[in-house]
Amino acid sequence: MSNEVTITITVRLPDGVVPDVQYSSLDEPPFPAEAPRYDPDQRVEFRPMTPLDPPSAPLCQHGIPMKRYPAGISKKTGKPYNASWRPSDAGCTTVALFDRDPAAA
């Protein structure tokens, strides 16, 4: 078995583009990149930080986003129940999707 590997790389460049191949020795360090120059008068707009977007709602069999019902405690039995995704349309027969652990929600 040979320890030699041959790799062929083809790079297609647009007409008129000449690659810079001056740095080709492993013994020479690469040239330091020039620090970017910024216009001190340029106004930079920052957008406020927002929490990560919530996961998108699952879709029912009709392609309509389902509604999220949070976990809670039953007023009737006093027992906790899981959070769930249920169809937005009362006539939809898509089965509700339940979270596994009511304490996790």
SSE inventory with pairings:
Elements: E1 67-69, E2 72-73, E3 80-81, E4 84-86, E5 97-98
Antiparallel strand pairs: 1-4, 2-3, 4-5
Distance between the termini: 57 Å
With strands numbered from the N-terminus, the spatial order across the biggest sheet is 1-4-5
Q: Please tell me the overall pLDDT.
A: 76
Which ranges are low-confidence, i.e. pLDDT below 50, for 5 or more consecutive residues?
none
Give the C-alpha Rg. 30 Å
From the helix content, strand content and strand pairing, which structural class follows? little secondary structure
How many strands in all? 5
Shape: elongated
Q: Percent range for helical residues? A: under 10%
Largest sheet: 3 strands, antiparallel
Beta content comes to 5-15%
Along the chain, the helix and strand elements come as EEEEE
Report the total helices.
0
